[in-house]
Amino acid sequence: MLTSATNSVAKYPYPSTVNVAIFVSIKLSHKNFLLWKTQILGLIESQLLGFIDGTILTPSSTIESFENGETVRQPNPDYSAWKKPAYLLRGWLIGSLTEELLGLVVGLKTFEQVWKTLTRAFARESKDREIMLIGKLQLHRKQDKPVTEYVTGFKAICDELVVIGKPLEDDDKVFWLVNGLGPGYESFMSSILKPPIPSYLDAVSLLQGHETMKDLHAGEA
Q1: In this structure, are residues 181 and 188 in contact, taking their beta carbons and an 8 Å threshold?
Q2: DSSP string covering 179-202, please?
Q3: Which residues of the chain have pLDDT under 50?
Q4: Of 34, 63, 165, 216, which has the fewest CB atoms closer than 10 Å, so is most exposed?
């Protein structure tokens, strides 16, 4: 016959042998919150989903019983069994942080506290970073750089926006790409921005072809 303690343990999974690195290949830094969040949620949802979807609630630490006509409070075996996976989950979160971020969670006792602290901190930081990257995109100019270098720099900024979960629409990427070309590209800009606007990849290809023709004409002059 199962004891109360055995029943309690059976209620709460304890996947202590899971290889966390299979699910979470990156540590959280100031630049990769959404990628990290996607990976850590994949781990949690596959192993301890009930702890984050509300189906597994925190049990009371004590329970009441009656002995000799009196109410007696004693440790709740459910709470003891719940603590192990709850602390494991907290360990997964803290173990996936870079050293520079550990200070954010020092002293936090539960996985709920750790999770809320991280999501609140990075919600603001992600917005600030989005504003910074959009500003950087607006100021990105070709000037005397080769087209390949200009496009590579442009793509790097767009990729950073993807990382924080704020990817640009294709038309917006085309607009900002040609917007930074500057003098000497007026006719090209007009043709690209005339509906129907090409895809970003097509716009890059057209820009590279345009630059090749410019170089050929310059060599013939």
Answers
A1: yes
A2: HTS-TT-HHHHHHHSSSSPPPHHH
A3: 1-2
A4: 216
